[in-house]
Amino acid sequence: MYRVKLVVFYISILFIPSITAQSNIRFNHLTVQDGLSQSAVTVIFQDKQGFMWFGTQDGLNRYDGYNFKVFKNIPSDSTSLTDNFIFSIYEDKTGSLIIETQTGNFNKYNPITESFSLIKKDDIDFVNIKGSSLGAFCVESKGIQWRGGLSKPIGLNRIDSKNGKEITFKHNPSDPTSLINDKVYSIYRDKKGNLWVGTFDGLDKLDEKTGKFSHYRNDPQNSNSLPDNWVWPIYEDSHGNLWIGTVRGGVSKFNPATNTFVNFNNDPDDPTSINDNFIFSIYEDRSGIIWIGTNTGGINYFHPSSQVFERFINYPNNKNSLSDNAVLAMYADKEGNYWIGTREGGLDKFNYDKNSFTNYSNNPSNANSLINNSVLAITEDRSGILWLGTFSSGMNSFDPKSGIFKRFVNNPSDPNSLSDNRVYSIFEDRDGIIWIGTYGGGLNRLDKSTGKFTVYKHDEKNTASISSNSVWTMSEDNEGKLWLGTFGGGVNIFDKVNQTFINFKNDPKDPSSLGDDNIIRAFKDSKNNMWFGTTKGLCRFYRDSKKFKTYREKDGLANDFVYGILEDNNGNLWLSTNNGLSKFDPRKETFKNYYYEDGLQGNEFNQNAYAKDFRTGRLLFGGPNGLNIFNPDDLKNNNYLPPIVFTNYLRYNTDDEEGKPIIEKGISERDSIVLTYKDNIVTIDFAALSFYNNFENQYRYMLEGFNENWIQLGSNHTITFTNLSPGDYKLRVIGSNNDGIWNEEGTTLFIQVQPPWWRTNLAYLIYGILLIGLLYSIRKFEIDRREQKSRVRESELRVKATEAEKRVLEVENERKTKELEEARQLQLSMLPKELPKLPNVEIAAFMRTATEVGGDYYDFIVEENGILNVAFGDATGHGLQAGTMVTLMKGFFTADSSKLGLKEFMSHCSRVIKDIKLGRILMSFSYLKIENNKLQLSSAGMPPIYYHHKETNQVEEIIIQGMPLGAMRNASYKILEKELKSGDTILLLTDGLPEQMNANEEMFDYSRVKSHFNEIIENTPDTIIEKFVEAGDGWMNGRVQDDDITFVVIRIK
Predict the structure, then answer these.
(1) Residues 597-650 pLDDT 10s
(2) What DSSP letter does each residue of 127-193 carry, written as one string?
(3) Element (H or E) spanning 794, and its range?
(4) In whole angstroms, what is the distance from residue 576 CA to residue 873 CA?
(5) How many helices, marked H, and strands, marked E, lie in the chain?
(6) Which residues contact 909 (CB under 8 A, 6 or more apart)?
(7) Mind listing the pLDDT tens digit for each residue in 1-42?
(8) Residues 82-102: pLDDT tens digits?
(9) N or C: which end of the chain has fewer CB within 10 A?
C-alpha cells in the first residue's frame, strides 16, 4: 500500500471567520472526560458486531455506547499494538479488524484474547476490504489505485496495477480545469461513480473522460459555499449527501445536485455546536448517526432525527436572532409570521421562510412603544391587531402596519380600567370580544369602542361568581361558552348571556373529578373536546357525565406539570412539560416523549410559550433556552434493530485475599463461561448497540436454571450474580433502542458453575462404591445377628430403636426452635429502642422477620452537633450466623461512625469482616449522614434508595454500585452527595418486599415499589410504611414470608 509518513500534528493556523450553520444540528460530544484516550480522532469505523472504533493519535478505542475500551502499545507486550498513532481501521471479509499505525505496521485484532498480531501488507486484499483511513488512498476493483501525498505536493496519481501504467494530475496555473492544488489530502469515489479530491486549496471533482476538474472553493460572500479551502475527509452518507471536513472551517454537508453547502462550525455561544473546526474523520453508522472526529474536540455525533426539532436561540453578536432565550409567549398570525414574547428582550417577529427576526422593545421616551419588555401573552384579533399582555405593566394593542403600540393599564381611581397590570392571558371570542385574564384582578372584558373594561371577580357570597381572581388561560367551545383556567380555583365555564360561572374543582376523594385546581392551559381540540394542562397532569372533560379523566407520569406522560397543549394535523396532542415534550394519541391513550437529547431547547418549557402555524402544520414550543419549531409529520421513529452484545465480565474469587476482580477478556465473542465454586461474585455488562439517545435503551434478562421469568432492568445494563450454586445456566439478554424497538432474539451466554471436588461425578462414584461396601457389611452383620438372636429380641430392639429415634427428633426440633427464637431476639435487640426526634427530620421504621430469621438491621446515631447517622443493612444467610454479622455491624456503627468519614467507615468495615473470615456471610449495607440540608450516602450491595423530590413531585431511583462488606479486603466505595429540601422524602428498604413472590411466582419488583411510593407520598412516614406493609400482605395473600421485610422512611421538614 502506498502511503505517506505522517507525524503528529501541531499546526498553528489562522482560522477563518465563524460561519453560521444554515440548519440546526445538535451535536453530542465524546471527549477524554468520557474515557476517550486522546482528543485527535483520526479514523472512525463500525465493526460487524456494531461496536464503534475510534483511532486517535494516542491509542485505539472501542465504544459500546456507555464505555470506552482503550488499546495501546505496551513495550513489554508483543501482542499489544505496535504504535499508538492510529492511521487506518479495516475489516476484512472474515470480519477481522486490521489496524494500521502511523509507523506503517498492520495489526490484526483477536477479539477472543483482545490482543494483536503483526501481518504483512502484501497479505491484505485491499480491493475486498472496507474501512476508514487518514491517508489519501483509494483502491478499486479493476486494479486501479488513486494516491495523494497529503502535505507533499505530488498531485493526484492514477496507477493501473495490471500494467503498471501511471498517470499524474497536477496543478497547472495556466489551465483553470487542472487540479486545483498539488497537496491532496483525500480521495473518495461516491456511489454515482464520481471521484472527489480534497486538497489544500479546495474540493475537486474529476471528469475521468476529459481529465478536467470542477472546483469548489470558499466564497466569503456566499454562506452556502465551501467553508474552508483546506479539505481533508470526504464521506457520502446513505442519502447521497457528501460530508466535507475542513481544517479551519468545521464540517459541511454538500448536495451534489444543487452544488450547495450547509456548513457547521464551532460557535462559542452554543455548547451544542461542533466543538472543533479541525476535522480529521467522518463516518455514518448503520443506524444513520453521523460521527465526526476532530483534532482537539474528540468525537462529535448526531442523528438526522434530531434535526426535526429546529432550535432558535439568542446570539449576542447577531441581531438577526432571538432577542432573549427565555421565551414566555408565542403566536402564529394569519400571514405566517411568528410573534415571540420574551422575558427581557421584548417582542420578536420571526419570518420563518426568510429566517429573519425583527425586534420591538420598550423605549422609555416613546409612549407608543412596547410598554414592558416582559411579554406574557399574545393574541391576534380578526382585524389583524395584536394584543400583548405583560408581566407587570398592563396590556398593549399593536398595529403591525403602523408599528404603534397602544397602552392599557390599571388606574386605581377608575373602576372601568384594566383590573390588574399582571396580564397572563388574552383571548378573542367568536363575537370578536377581547377577554383578558389577570393574576389577582380576575377576568376583564374590553369594549374596543370605548376602551373601557368590565371586570368579573370572585365573590365569596355568590357561588355563581368566578372561583378565582387569577385567570391564566382561556378557550371557547363550539357552543360559544368561555372556559377559564384559574390558578387555585380550578375550571370555570362562563355563560356570557346569563353572566354566570359554573365551577369544577378537584375532590381528593373523587378520582373522576378535576385532577388539580391549578390550570395552566385550557384547550379545545378539533372534536370539541376540552383538555386542561395542570400542575398535576393532563385532564380531559367528558360533557355527558361531567367527569374528568387525568393522565399522569405513571400513564406515560413526560412530567405532571403541563404547560402547553397543541393539536397536530393527525389529531395527536402535543404537551410541553417540566421534563420534555409529550405526544399523546387520544385514540390509543398512549404517550411518546421527547427530550433535550432529541433536539429540544431544554426539558423545561414555559407557560403560554406555544403556537401552531395552521398554514403549514408546524408547532412551536418555547422555554428558558430558546424555542423549537417542527412539523410532527417529519418525525420518524428509530426503527434500527440494535445488536445486543456482552461487553465486560468480572469475577471475584474467595481465594483472593485482596478481593480484586478478575477481568476476563473477549466476552463479546464468547458463547459460554466456566466458573469455579469459589467465584462467588460475577458481574456482566452488556449493551444494545444503538447509540442515538441510548440512555433510553431498555433491557431484560432471564437466567434459565435459576428463574424462568424475565427480569426488567430498565436502562440498567449490568447484572451481578452472587454465590450461584453449581450447575448449568443460560443467561439471555434482550434489549431495545430509544424508541422501543426490541431485539427479541438478543444474546445468550451459557454459564457453568463447577462444583467443589467433593461434589464431582468422580467423588459421587467413590461415595457409591463405599456405600455399596457399607451396605454389604451391614447386610452380612444383620444375617449373623438373626442367626444368634430370637425374633422376640429383634422385635424389642426395633421398638426401642423407634422410641429412641423419636426422642432424638423431639430434642433436635426443640433445639432448632430455641435457636431460631434466640436468633430472632438477638436481631431485635440490635435495633434502636426508640427513634430519634429531631427538629429537621421525621423518621419512621419497621421490620418484620421471616420464619427463618434473616439479617436485616437498622440503627441511628445523633451526634452532639445534630448530625444524624443512619445505618441500614441486610446480612446474608439466616439464623445465628446472620445475627452474628448484625451484632458485628452494630459494634462498628456505635464505635466508629462518628469518628470516620463515610468512605473510610465502609472500607474499614469491609476489611475487618474480610479478615475475620466468616466464609460466605457478607453484609449489604447503606450509610446515610444528614447534616442541615446536606445528605451524604454510600452503599454496598443494597437495593436502590428512593428519593422523592417535593419540588418536582418526582421519585429518583438512586443506585450506588458497590460490593457487599466483606467481599473484598481493599474495597473502595463511592460517596454521593445531595442537597436536601423541605418536604423531600427518603425510602430505604431491604430486598424482602421487592423479591417477595406471590401465588403466581411473580416478584413484587422494584418498579412497583417506586410507583407505589410516588402514589402514597402525601402521607406521613408512618402511614407510608403502613401502606407498604398492606401492599406486601396483599401481594403475598397468605403465602409464607420468604425474607425479613424492613423499611426506614425519612422526611425533611
Answers:
(1) 899 999 999 999 999 999 999 999 999 999 999 999 999 889 999 999 999 999
(2) TT-EEEESSSEEE-TTSEEEE--TTS---EEEEETTT--EEEE---TT-TTS-S-S-EEEEEE-TTS
(3) helix 791-829
(4) 41
(5) 6, 72
(6) 889, 892, 923, 925, 965
(7) 334 334 333 333 333 333 343 346 889 999 999 999 999 999
(8) 999 999 999 999 999 999 999
(9) C
Q: Nearest Cα to 548, choosing from 536, 563, 564?
A: 536
Q: Which residues of 639-662 are buried (b: 16+ CB within 10 A; e: fewer)?
A: ebbbbbbbbbbbbbebeeeebebe
SS3 state at 619: strand
Q: Which CATH architecture describes the domain 644-755?
A: Sandwich (2.60)
Q: Centre a 10 Å sphere on the Cβ of residue 233 and count the other Cβ atoms it contains.
A: 26
Burial 79-118 (b: 16+ CB within 10 A, else e): ebbbbbbbbbbbbbeeeebbbbbbeebbbbbebeebbbee
Q: Which CATH architecture has domain 312-634?
A: 7 Propeller (2.130)
Length in residues, the chain = 1053
DSSP H or E segment with residue 886: helix 879-896
Measured CA to CA, the distance from residue 916 to residue 639 in angstroms comes to 54
765 burial level (CB within 10 Å; 0-12, 13-18, 19+): exposed
Cell of 548: 374528568
Q: Do domains 312-634 and 644-755 have the same CATH topology?
A: no
Please tell me the number of Cα atoms within 13 Å of 597 on its side-chain side: 11
CATH of domain 28-308: 2.130.10.10
pLDDT in tens, 665-722: 889 999 999 998 888 899 999 999 999 999 999 999 999 999 889 999 999 999 999 9
Return the beta strands (E) in 738-839 as ranges.
742-753
What is the pairing mode between strands 711-714 and 699-704? antiparallel
**How far is residue 1053's CA from residue 1048's CA, in Å, rounded to a whole number?**
16
The overall pTM is greater than 0.90: no
**Residue 819 β-bridge partners:** none
The residues facing 929 across adjacent strands are: 869, 936
Q: What is the domain class of 830-1052 according to CATH?
A: alpha beta
Q: Could you give the 3-state DSSP secondary structure of residue 626?
A: strand
Please state the φ and ψ torsions of residue 1012, each to the nearest 5 degrees: -65, -40
**Burial zone of 838 (CB within 10 Å; 0-12 exposed, 13-18 middle, 19+ buried):** middle
What pLDDT sits at residue 808? 43
- Rounded Cα distance between 195 and 156, Å, is 11
Between 247 and 922, the higher pLDDT residue: 247
Which three cell numbers, joined as nine digits, stand for 847? 421490620
Q: Which residues contact 462 (CB under 8 A, 6 or more apart)?
A: none
Q: What is the DSSP letter of 665?
A: P
Q: Give the Å distances, CA to CA, from 395 to 178, 313, 405, 438.
A: 66, 26, 10, 10
Averaged confidence pLDDT in the chain:
90
CA 660 to chain CA centroid, Å, is: 30
Of 415, 406, 513, the C-alpha closest to 455 is: 415
Cα–Cα distance measured from residue 850 to residue 852, given in angstroms and rounded to the nearest whole number:
5
Could you give the CA distance from residue 991 to residue 484 in angstroms, rounded to a whole number?
Answer: 48
* Phi then psi dihedrals of residue 463, to 5 deg: -70, -15
Q: How do the domains of the chain map onto residue ranges?
A: 28-308, 312-634, 644-755, 770-815, 830-1052
Q: What is the gyration radius of the CA atoms in the chain, in angstroms?
A: 36
> In 10 A of CB 37, how many CB atoms?
22
pLDDT tens string 723-782 = 899 999 999 999 999 999 999 999 999 999 998 887 777 767 887 888 888 888 788 877
Are 999 and 954 in contact, with CB atoms under 8 Å apart? no
